[in-house]
From TrEMBL:
Component of the anaphase promoting complex/cyclosome (APC/C), a cell cycle-regulated E3 ubiquitin ligase that controls progression through mitosis and the G1 phase of the cell cycle. The APC/C complex acts by mediating ubiquitination and subsequent degradation of target proteins: it mainly mediates the formation of 'Lys-11'-linked polyubiquitin chains and, to a lower extent, the formation of 'Lys-48'- and 'Lys-63'-linked polyubiquitin chains. The APC/C complex catalyzes assembly of branched 'Lys-11'-/'Lys-48'-linked branched ubiquitin chains on target proteins. Pathway: Protein modification; protein ubiquitination. One of its GO terms (biological process) is positive regulation of mitotic metaphase/anaphase transition. It comes from Podarcis muralis. This is Anaphase-promoting complex subunit 5. It holds the Pfam family Apc5_N. Belongs to the APC5 family.
Length: 727
């Protein structure tokens, strides 16, 4: 059988065979040996670095090969092209003489090539493969070389006459079968890229095309089926990924690869790990019933074989499937102890990470959680578990965000971004294109947006889009954060129609977040009854799934609805419930925000002095770690309380209190302007104008009144008293 100049009897039956491309590499090696003394040190380094991927990689067109050589050494590229042209335009005996001369590279006391070197082994393989060819096969190889050179001539002519653009896909891709070494190198390279830098890997469609080509010549190539499974996961294709995973384990059993390495247990080992991987696949796609059935099968086979390692993996997945149950924490603690006992540091560390996450949601103190993460970090560094080091830092970032400590979260995020991976990757490959980095960058973008640095946030999101393209597996993370930031900006700017168009996108990525944003939008549009119904449904759902953070946010929004409906006394029990929850689960920032809402309730109920006293309990964390909008709202509330309290003061003290309030309003105005929050700016200007009028400062009053009028015409009133709202 002969395909595209490749002479072979059985695909992957031999390690290597002769192709026109490999003959071109032989010419390159020969010319490199002759030109060696005349090459500069830099040129030799470049050529040596180029040679290894050329030897290991798939066949390429002659034009691409010559172009790669030209980038390292132009005159050597010209010599290679001339030599190939002479061989292709000559007679068959010229090719015969070329292979006879190859063995001279090993002769002499100081040979040009050592037999055991990478280049030496390649030369010996080619010489042996050529010597095994029959005369008819040698003639077919010669005609294939001529065709290889003629195709290059046509390509060069077309590029010169018609266009000067990138090569077509059919010129780049490998047509025809690869040798075993080339196939293994291609698969390992693409698998490494999928893990470390997905943007450098082939696109899902192109990679699947190459894999189908490989499997066409060797359907039993198990590793190709596994890479096809990984490729299916990239595009969330449950059918093709399941199909490829099952074929992978079928081929392992049929080819006997597992039996050779694991004795009689090989077949059983493949079966139990096939069931375990199938359970993980179903769990990833949310098919929990199918995942549980596959996991039960894996546990049964592992118990029969007394495979404790497999059982430990099964126990970890069992926790993931049952983590909503009340006894899942006990199951996880048992899993960690067993993993340590059987010497499985990776599983033990993942278990500790899951325990920390679970206890963070349960309201444990930050010092205990960080202590547990410190112990797991020691495990990571001891065993050089680079991926888990990244996960641990991303976990710390998320925990500090949960507890409302944005400064600490920012520090952890910067730490991860400045780290270098412990894993060896190829030059030009991003070292850390993992989920941890996507999470940290998303948090970083949100932190910048909260502080009003929208340009910086946009740059981070742009980097995320380049690093994790829309078809990559972690793209949904930045998509959600991007939509949320755009929604908040539209709401601040009063562009409710823009915010409404973003709700659908947020809901598609996170249904709970989408419903909450829809309720916020309805509330801003004065559709109080619809917003209240939506928030009540969301409250029941969040209480059921134990999403405490969202429960508190929903309670605060319900309290605001009561204010706007002038039901201030009904809002108090709701706020007290939110405060109890935030303190129980140690969500300090939400607790501070709830106290601000309680202070506003007291202001509305006519006890501003009491409101001012409790404001001091909450305003410090807000100013230290809060978003710019929250800082402005807190300072604005202080000014309102000062104005209300000044009503009972003597004239001198009243004037001082009003002037102090004006200073606070100026500070609040600066915060609101930073995030372009026009509604709050309008309210601040309204109150400032009233205060300047009371102090008899007509010029300042008129200035504020003019600015207020401009904003009021741009933003129609909401149908409620202007300053009768906390935010």
């Amino acid at each position: 059988m002969m395909t595209n100049g490749v002479v072979h009897a059985n695909v992957f039956g031999i390690k290597d065979w002769v192709t026109p491309y490999k003959m071109a590499l032989l010419v390159l090696i020969g010319e490199l040996g002759r030109a060696g003394p005349h090459l500069s040190l830099l040129e030799r380094r470049r050529l040596n670095r180029l040679l290894l991927p050329l030897l290991q990689g798939p066949d390429m067109t002659l034009s691409r090969l010559i172009k790669a050589i030209e980038e390292c050494c132009p005159h050597l590229a010209s010599s290679v092209q001339i030599r190939i042209k002479l061989m292709a335009g000559g007679e068959l005996k010229d090719m015969e003489q070329f292979f006879d001369d190859l063995s001279e590279a090993f002769s002499g006391t100081e040979p040009e090539v050592h037999k055991t070197s990478v280049v030496g082994l390649f030369l010996r393989h080619m010489i042996l493969a050529y010597n095994k060819l029959s005369f008819s096969q040698v003639y077919k190889l010669y005609t294939a070389l001529q065709q290889y050179f003629q195709n290059d001539e046509k390509t060069r002519k077309m590029e010169k006459d018609e266009f000067d653009g990138p090569l077509r896909e059919e010129e780049i891709s490998c047509n025809g079968p690869l040798s075993q070494k080339q196939a293994e190198y291609f698969l390992s390279q693409q698998a490494s890229l999928l893990k470390n830098d997905e943007t450098k890997a082939l696109s899902p469609a192109s990679l699947q095309k190459e894999l189908n080509s490989l499997l066409k010549f060797n359907p039993d190539f198990a590793e190709a089926h596994y890479l096809s499974y990984l490729n299916g996961l990239r595009v969330q294709d449950v059918f093709s990924s399941t199909h490829s995973l099952l074929h992978y384990f079928d081929r392992l059993i049929l080819t006997g690869a597992e039996s050779k390495s694991n004795g009689d247990e090989g077949c059983g080992r493949s079966l139990r790990y096939a069931a375990l991987n199938l359970a993980a696949l179903h769990c990833r796609f949310g098919h929990y019933q199918q995942a549980e059935l596959a996991l039960q099968e894996a546990i049964r086979i592992a118990q029969e074989s007394n495979d404790h390692v497999c059982l430990q993996h099964c126990l970890s997945w069992l926790y993931i499937l049952e983590q909503k149950r009340s006894d899942s924490c006990v199951l996880l603690e048992h899993s960690v102890k067993k993993a340590v006992y059987f010497g499985l540091p990776y599983l033990a560390s993942l278990g500790i990470q899951s325990l920390v996450q679970q206890r963070a949601f349960a309201g444990k103190t930050a010092n205990k959680l960080m202590g547990a993460l410190k112990d797991s970090d020691l495990l990571h560094w001891k065993h050089s578990l680079s991926e888990l080091i990244d996960i641990s830092i991303a976990q710390k970032t998320a925990i500090w965000r949960l507890y409302g400590r944005s400064t600490m979260a920012l520090q952890q995020a910067q730490m991860l971004l400045s780290m270098n991976s412990l894993e060896a990757v190829n030059v030009g490959v991003q070292q850390n294109n993992t989920e941890s980095f996507a999470v940290v960058l998303c948090h970083l973008a949100e932190l910048h947006a909260e502080q009003g640095y929208f340009t910086a946030a946009s740059e981070i999101l742009k980097h995320l889009k380049e690093r994790f393209p829309p078809n990559s597996q972690h793209a949904q993370l930045w998509m959600l954060f991007d939509q949320k930031i755009q929604f908040d900006r539209a709401m601040n700017d009063g562009k409710y129609h823009v915010a409404g168009s973003l709700v659908a996108g947020i809901t598609a990525l996170n249904s709970t977040e989408g419903v909450y944003r829809k309720a916020i939008l309805l509330k801003a549009q004065n559709q109080m009854s619809e917003a209240h119904k939506l928030l009540q449904k969301l409250l029941i759902h969040c209480q059921k799934i134990k999403n405490t953070e969202m429960v508190i946010s929903v309670l605060l929004s319900i309290a605001e609805l009561y204010w706007r409906s002038l039901c201030h006394t009904i809002a108090l029990p709701v706020l007290l419930q939110a405060l109890a929850l935030s303190q129980e689960y140690r969500l300090q920032y939400l607790a501070s925000e709830t106290i601000l809402n309680l202070a506003f309730s007291q202001l509305i109920l006519g006890i501003p002095e009491q409101a001012l006293s409790i404001l001091h309990m909450a305003i410090e964390p807000i100013l230290a770690h809060g978003a710019v909008l929250d800082k402005g709202a807190a300072i604005f509330l202080v000014a309102k309380c000062q104005v209300a309290s000044a009503a009972s003061y003597p004239p001198q003290k009243k004037t001082e209190a009003l002037e102090s309030a004006i200073l606070n309003l100026n500070e609040a105005k600066t915060y609101f302007a930073k995030v372009d929050c026009k509604e709050q700016l309008r309210d601040v200007l309204y109150l400032q104008a009233r205060l300047f009028h009371s102090l008899g400062k007509a010029q300042e009053r008129n200035q504020c009144a003019m600015l207020f009028r401009q904003l009021h015409q741009e933003l129609p009133a909401r149908g409620v008293p202007l300053i009768n709202a906390f935010k």
